[in-house]
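A sample follows:
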Amino acid sequence: MAGAYDDRDGKIWLDGQLVEWRDAKVHILTHALHYASSVFEGERCYNGKIFKSVEHSERLIKSGELLDMKIPYSVEEIEAAKTAVLEANGLTDAYVRVIAWRGAGEDMGVASAKNPVRMAVAAWTWGAYYGDAKMKGAKLDIAKWKRPSPETIPTAAKAAGLYMICTMSKHAAEAKGCSDALFMDYRGYVAEATGANIFFVKDGEVHTPIPDAILNGITRQTVIEMLKAKGITVHERRIMPEELADFEQCWLTGTAAEVTPVGQIGDYTFTVGDITREIAEEYEALVRS
């Protein structure tokens, strides 16, 4: 599958039924388009099985609750919709996007309680998110924007509005020849990349930011479990930017990113060492098991 995302062959699940890809449309006065009232999940299907599928569906519902937006489908119904989309498109290895949003209705101001909550599921083939950086190590810029305080926005939700500064920061990074950008949080601590969590290695131990102002990614949680099972000490803590000079290895985790080594962040360089390679290989084996 190739070409613009609104002009492809295939089926998309929309509000309870499969429709032709090109017919999956919303009105220009859809509330989410104007006020970012939407939440979503990105998932990967390997060999016909979506990795951590139920956990993703549960998080979608939770994200909706955090935005005061009750999603009108159960976990079981969301799971069935994902299965239907994969089968309708003949996909066994794919990226799956589930999105729920406030649609067009009687409200068009900030309030939207009278508007229906809609949902769609699409799937397509998608290779390595960072291209060949997955093998050689990604190069990251340092974003000028900061991840916001959880007192200002529901940072635990996978919500569209939280990605505005991610798009801006990734564009700035790509203009500099980088794959992505690293955010600090509102306090100045190391936070995450634009769509992935981050890990560091020093003296054989792993360090990763506490997810108190960032999304606690499902891949992040999986990798921490894998590291602990290998007997590797994992420190979930607040990390200062100047500590980047002392770390030896670095990698990103996310459904799209999977486990991607990082070779450089700003002026700091890292090796693609044994722990990074091993966890990347073991994660790949796990998701395909």
